[in-house]
């Protein structure tokens, strides 16, 4: 047992200390400086002093989505890593796991988030969505249906959508490089 | 949509016990005997959520020490009726609640007019001596009215709920615990945290229903049973289901005594117990008796639960069930040991309980000693009309500071403790008993505001569970030790 | 949080406690305080506890909600004289089922002010004042994880390598029938951050379930708030305190529930889900607050051993407490940061300093990234590339240009559990 009262109290100097960065900040800093960013991903910070808000672009070099640039916004709050980062796709794209409003269906961004996960896990997860879109957990039901029933057709729709054309009357953003 | 003021006010609790529980609460009538600090704390935690009414029965006149430890009194209350003063302040807490006071000697009331208490849904007593308490308990028991008996002294608190059987509240057993899980309505998070034992039991029950109550016996059936569990899995990541699958074979075997143990039971040393038999064989024989009788062919439960993927609360709940069962089993074994010892003319304390099972005994013994102390303190009160109250403990260097009175206070209380231990046939002397006696002398019958509030919270929570008939109440006593911040539950 | 703090600043409560005492006032407490006990610390001095309780001990209570009300009452009745309260909230009707210092007429007023006024009226001789520093003990009765992480980190950082700057934190929390009380001795015991992964997670549902396969009423409510609102009302910011907004969400969720034959969507559930309302009752608050105050009393008076260091309470299935020592986490981002002082040459460049760190046997870094601990300015970062490029020119600069004598550097590296704080001492 620690004898707290044998430690002499000194109140005078307590106020001189400058505040340090928050635990969330240090954690984000650790996550960022240890990122192993592949060539297919790029980050940029609108305000370089603000590590909690940044953009990510993914340029898949294989799979259905090869040739496109897909942009995401990351928003980390001060309760990180208790709370997961908020990630949205800032373009309107045709993808089974991303809806037209930019919501992303990735388990570790919501129900399976744990404080031991980090930004790298999220990036890997996002990258994977473009290599292996998942038809079983659909957010864009039509796209998932296409992927499940007719891969050729799905592939065609992806190409169309990436060029900014319509798929069944819904127009998508041009994401080609 | 219009949400009325009352729903708004009670929003945070309605989420726990809903309108039905609230209605039950609002029609309940609670009686508190003696408006002590602890008593007032209980009422505070019942008035705030909106109990129907409360009545304080107390003939004490407020003195300075009451105002010192009770939030519901002010210096101006000194000299006034305690029942009236606390009722007025408690009533301020919630305009929906009716408060009554009866400035009458509770002991005389119990003696002369016990039927007075039959108008209440529940009666709480603080600091009532044993004799009138027994009479009150009797009256209430026959009328099926729950009685809560409560004591606090210094850092120690104890309460017990006497609950007539007819009250029909859910007591917890593993079987019932399993039934609290409705797998279909759980979300994925909860579903992924169902303790595996619960998964196994749930599917085993389903299997038995479909197979005339039989267990899976052939390897084909066992595989089929595994398939059944597998089918309940919502996604590949549910580790708890994997745990259940890997233990599925265990659920398929009829639990019985292992063959090696059977061999030991058949050993002639176990068969022929004499006064020369070793402690080991006496204990083995006692366990054999248990298996043949109360255990219905099973060994006493070890009481430890392997770690598994589950929420803490779920795991803890299950651990409690296991522990409770283990405690019950081991006390039966102990009784057998004592019977055997008596039959061969050896004294019952020649085998210490530690030898029978050291683990659970240590767990519960440390806190049960506090119960013994409180009861001994009551005995002291009965004969001296005051509580033990003296500085009896000193550091080694100045041990001679202890006064003659203090020494006698200590030894008198100790005498009562030993008397009780004798009456209850407790033969193993509790560890650090003297230290606990010192603490009771030190506390001098005092009631600390923090302990009052803590016990008040516990008691009021139990009362709410009883009145709303929701959640699972204790069975039937709690001892809280504020020195070590620990509580234990006993069936007393 | 600091901007929104409200401190009570009340004059007139300054009478000495003695003048407010009446015969017998402390007679219960004095039994304990005037006598030695076998479990008490040997340094315990039987003397009414006057020295500590009356004169020197100042307690800060953070949060004047359900726990806070109880804590204030208990501290006042336990003889504490100098108590200060901080709370950021105003009083709401739904507080009245447990926050007993408030009456219906107080709705809308600041909690800290009403609570402290009430306590001073009911328990004479307690004064609050507005010194922020110099508390021996801080008791936290908050419902927000974020606010508790903040105060925890503040107290851990306050220590700054000097043990005399340790301020004990007693933290309580409740949720329905469950709760916990714990004693945190910053830098010595495990801290709030160490146990973050023990917290029950907020209930969240897979967004694809919400979008396509709702089964529960909660799924429908989440759909209304997370998917349908942004689509239908993109220009209006959702305000979960606005009953009209809740009404809209409720009706939307109800419609969706009907479509999928799901029952159970109510106004109250809608409110509960979107505001993440945690059930709260008077009795659990009383238990946890009393346990916190009991620990505070034992800590301050040394009259009994204090909790080491965690007590969990559950009351929904029987009554169960579990008392144990929670272990410090080596990779805790608050108290797991190692801190060393290094003597280095004034001439050293950033590049050479990094090389020096990599070669230093006792720390064994591989790819260290450096920032200024206070300004957060990046000195050199290994990743992401955008910052590597930006900070690469710094490699040739002298460290002294960016880090002054006595300043601290935050170093992160894959080999470190979280970070290393280096205090620079130039020679």
Helices and strands in order, then pairings?
The complex is a heterotrimer of chains A (177), B (492) and C (427).
Chain A lengths: L22 H11 L7 E4 L8 E6 L11 E6 L10 E4 L29 H13 L9 H9 L1 H12 L3 E2 L2 E2 L6
Antiparallel strand pairs in A: 1-2, 2-3, 3-4, 5-6
Helix pairs in contact in A: 3-4
Chain B lengths: L4 H5 L1 H16 L2 E5 L3 H11 L5 E5 L6 H6 L12 H10 L6 E5 L3 H7 L9 E5 L3 H13 L4 E7 L2 E7 L11 H6 L8 H4 L4 H15 L8 H14 L6 H8 L1 H5 L6 H8 L1 H4 L7 H14 L19 H32 L9 H4 L1 H27 L19 H20 L9 H11 L5 H20 L8 E5 L4 E5 L2
Parallel strand pairs in B: 1-2, 1-4, 2-3, 4-5
Antiparallel strand pairs in B: 5-6, 6-7, 7-8
Chain C lengths: L16 H4 L6 H7 L16 H7 L1 E5 L3 H12 L4 E5 L24 H12 L14 E5 L3 H15 L8 E8 L2 E7 L22 H6 L4 H16 L10 H17 L7 H8 L7 H20 L8 E5 L5 E5 L13 E7 L5 H10 L9 E4 L5 E3 L4 H7 L7 H4 L5 E5 L7 E7 L1
Parallel strand pairs in C: 1-2, 1-3, 3-4, 8-12
Antiparallel strand pairs in C: 4-5, 5-6, 6-7, 9-10, 9-11, 11-12
Helix pairs in contact in C: 4-11, 8-9, 8-10, 9-10
Descriptive key words:
A: 177 residues, two-stranded antiparallel sheet, C: 427 residues, alpha/beta, 7-stranded mixed sheet, flat, disordered N terminus, UBQ-activ_enz_E1_Cys_AS (chain C), NEDD8 activating enzyme activity (chain C), ubl conjugation pathway (chain C), E2-binding (chain C)
Task: Please describe what this structure looks like.
The complex is a heterotrimer of chains A (177), B (492) and C (427). Chain A is 25% helix and 14% strand. Chain A has 177 residues and is an alpha+beta fold. Chain A has one domain: Ubiquitin Conjugating Enzyme, CATH 3.10.110.10. In chain A, the strands form 2 sheets. In chain A, strands 1-2-3-4 form a 4-stranded antiparallel sheet, with no helix packed on it. An 8-stranded mixed sheet of chain B has the order 3-2-1-4-5-6-7-8, with helices on both faces. In chain B, helix 11 packs antiparallel against helix 12 and helix 16 packs across helix 17. Chain C contains 14 helices and 12 strands. Chains B and C meet through helix 1, helix 2, helix 3, helix 4 and helix 17 of B and helix 2, helix 4, helix 9, helix 10 and helix 11 of C. Chain A: Belongs to the ubiquitin-conjugating enzyme family. Chain A: Its EC number is 2.3.2.34. Chain A: InterPro entries: Ub_conjugating_enzyme (IPR050113), UBC (IPR000608), UBQ-conjugating_AS (IPR023313), UBQ-conjugating_enzyme/RWD (IPR016135).
């Amino acid at each position: 047992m620690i004898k707290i009262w044998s430690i002499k109290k000194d109140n005078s100097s307590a106020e001189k200390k400058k505040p340090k960065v928050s635990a969330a900040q240090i954690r984000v800093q650790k996550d960022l400086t240890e990122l192993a960013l592949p060539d297919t991903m790029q980050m940029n910070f609108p305000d370089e002093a603000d590590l909690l808000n940044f953009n990510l672009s993914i340029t898949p070099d294989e799979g259905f989505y090869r040739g496109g640039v897909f942009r995401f916004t990351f928003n980390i709050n001060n309760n990180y890593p208790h709370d997961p980062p908020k990630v949205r796709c800032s373009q309107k794209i045709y993808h089974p796991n991303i809806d037209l409003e930019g919501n992303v269906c990735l388990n570790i961004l919501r129900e399976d988030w744990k404080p031991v996960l980090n930004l790298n896990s999220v990036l890997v997860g996002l990258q994977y969505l473009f290599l292996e879109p998942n038809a079983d957990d659909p957010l864009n039901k039509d796209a998932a249906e296409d992927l499940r029933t007719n891969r050729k057709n799905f592939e065609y729709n992806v190409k169309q959508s990436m060029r900014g054309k319509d798929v069944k009357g819904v127009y998508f953003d041009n994401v080609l490089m | 949509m219009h949400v009325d003021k009352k729903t708004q006010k009670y929003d945070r609790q309605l989420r726990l016990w809903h309108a039905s529980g609230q209605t039950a609460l609002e029609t309940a009538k609670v009686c508190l005997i003696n408006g002590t600090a602890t008593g007032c704390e209980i009422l505070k935690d019942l008035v705030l959520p909106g109990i129907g009414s409360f009545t304080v029965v107390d003939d004490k006149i407020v003195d300075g020490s009451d105002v010192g430890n009770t939030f519901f009194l002010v210096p101006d209350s000194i000299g006034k009726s305690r029942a009236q003063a606390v009722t007025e302040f408690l009533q301020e807490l919630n305009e929906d609640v009716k408060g009554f006071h009866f400035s009458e000697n509770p002991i005389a009331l119990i003696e002369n007019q016990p039927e007075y208490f039959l108008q209440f849904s529940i009666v709480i007593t603080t600091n009532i001596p044993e004799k009138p308490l027994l009479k009150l308990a009797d009256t209430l028991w026959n009328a099926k009215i729950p009685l809560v008996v409560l004591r606090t002294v210094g850092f120690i608190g104890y309460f017990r709920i006497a609950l007539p059987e007819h009250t029909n509240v859910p007591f917890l057993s593993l079987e019932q615990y399993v039934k609290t899980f409705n797998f279909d309505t759980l979300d994925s998070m909860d579903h992924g945290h169902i303790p595996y034992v619960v998964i196994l039991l749930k599917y085993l029950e389903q299997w038995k229903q479909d197979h005339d109550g039989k267990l899976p016996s052939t390897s084909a059936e066992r595989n089929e049973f595994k398939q059944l569990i597998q089918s309940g899995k919502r996604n590949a990541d549910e580790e708890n289901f994997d745990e259940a699958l890997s233990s599925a074979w265990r659920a398929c075997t009829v639990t019985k005594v292992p063959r090696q143990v059977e061999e030991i039971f058949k050993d002639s040393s176990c068969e022929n117990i004499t006064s020369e038999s070793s402690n080991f064989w006496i204990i083995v024989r006692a366990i054999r008796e248990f298996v043949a009788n109360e255990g219905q062919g099973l060994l006493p439960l070890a009481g430890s639960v392997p770690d598994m993927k589950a929420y803490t609360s779920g795991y803890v709940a299950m651990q409690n069930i296991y522990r409770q069962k283990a405690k019950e089993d081991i006390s039966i074994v102990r009784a057998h040991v004592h019977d055997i010892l008596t039959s061969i003319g050896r004294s019952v304390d020649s085998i210490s309980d530690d030898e029978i099972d050291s683990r659970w005994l240590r767990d519960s013994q440390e806190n049960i000693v506090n119960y013994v102390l409180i009861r001994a303190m009551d005995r002291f009160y009965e004969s001296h009309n005051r509580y033990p109250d003296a500085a009896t403990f000193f550091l080694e260097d100045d041990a001679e500071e202890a006064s003659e009175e203090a020494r006698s206070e200590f030894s008198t209380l100790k005498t009562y403790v030993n008397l009780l231990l004798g009456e209850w046939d407790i033969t193993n002397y509790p560890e650090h008993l003297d230290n606990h006696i010192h603490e009771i002398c030190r506390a001098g019958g005092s009631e600390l505001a923090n302990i009052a509030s803590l016990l008040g919270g516990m008691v009021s929570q139990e009362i709410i569970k009883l009145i709303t008939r929701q959640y699972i109440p204790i069975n039937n006593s709690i001892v809280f030790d504020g020195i070590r911040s620990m509580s234990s539950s006993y069936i007393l | 949080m600091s901007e929104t703090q409200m401190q009570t600043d009340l004059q007139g409560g300054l009478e000495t406690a003695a003048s407010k005492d009446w015969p017998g006032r402390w007679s219960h407490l004095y039994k304990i305080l005037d006598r030695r006990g076998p479990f008490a610390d040997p340094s315990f001095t039987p003397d009414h506890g006057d020295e500590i309780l009356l004169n020197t001990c100042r307690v800060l209570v953070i949060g004047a909600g359900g726990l806070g009300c109880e804590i204030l009452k208990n501290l006042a009745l336990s003889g504490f004289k100098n108590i200060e309260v901080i709370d950021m909230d105003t009083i709401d009707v739904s507080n009245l089922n447990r926050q007993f210092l408030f009456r219906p007429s107080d709705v809308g007023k600041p909690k800290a002010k009403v609570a402290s006024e009430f306590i001073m009226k009911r328990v004479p001789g307690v004064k609050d004042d507005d010194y922020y520093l110099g508390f021996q003990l801080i008791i936290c009765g908050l419902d927000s994880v974020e606010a508790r992480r903040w105060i925890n980190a503040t107290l851990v950082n306050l220590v700054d390598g000097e043990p005399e700057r340790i301020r004990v934190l007693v933290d309580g929390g409740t949720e329905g029938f469950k709760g916990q009380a714990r004693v945190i001795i910053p830098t010595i015991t495990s801290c709030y951050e160490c146990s973050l992964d023990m917290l029950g997670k907020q209930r969240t549902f897979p967004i694809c379930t919400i979008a396509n396969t709702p089964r529960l009423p909660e799924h429908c409510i989440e759909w209304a708030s997370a998917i349908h609102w942004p689509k239908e009302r993109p220009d209006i910011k959702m305000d979960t305190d606005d009953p009209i907004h809740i009404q809209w969400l409720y009706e939307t969720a109800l419609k969706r529930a009907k479509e999928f034959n799901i029952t159970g969507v109510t106004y109250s559930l809608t409110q509960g889900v979107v505001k993440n309302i945690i059930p709260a009752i008077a009795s659990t608050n009383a238990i946890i607050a009393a346990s916190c105050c009991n620990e505070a009393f034992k800590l301050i008076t040394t009259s009994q051993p204090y909790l080491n260091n965690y007590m969990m309470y559950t009351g929904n299935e029987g009554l169960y407490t579990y008392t144990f020592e929670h272990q410090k986490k080596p990779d805790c981002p608050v108290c797991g940061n190692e801190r060393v002082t290094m003597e280095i040459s004034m001439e050293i460049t950033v590049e050479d300093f990094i090389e020096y760190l990599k070669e230093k046997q006792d720390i064994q870094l591989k790819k260290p990234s450096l920032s200024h601990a206070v300004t957060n300015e990046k000195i050199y970062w290994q990743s992401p590339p955008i910052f590597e490029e930006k900070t690469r020119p710094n490699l040739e600069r002298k460290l002294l240009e960016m880090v002054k004598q006595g300043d601290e550097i935050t170093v992160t590296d894959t080999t470190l559990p979280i970070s290393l704080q280096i205090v620079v001492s130039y020679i």
